[in-house]
Design goal:
By secondary structure, the protein is an alpha+beta fold. It has two helices and four strands. The chain is globular.
């Protein structure tokens, strides 16, 4: 599953590109929930490379 690290600037680009609506605003950054299908669309849309494949 992909994860969003602390480099997130809370812009929302990832959430807009998620086909399964698995990304939500979570305080000062966004987070990815268990509905993630590992498509990688979010990682490609992040302007600061704050999204990476997790363990």
């Amino acid at each position: 599953m992909y994860v969003i690290n602390d480099s997130c600037i809370n812009c929302g680009a990832c959430a807009a590109d998620c086909p399964v609506d698995a990304i939500k605003e979570d305080g000062e950054k966004y987070s990815i929930n268990a509905d993630c299908i590992d498509c990688g669309a979010c990682a490609g849309s992040c302007p600061v490379d704050a999204i990476n494949a997790g363990d």
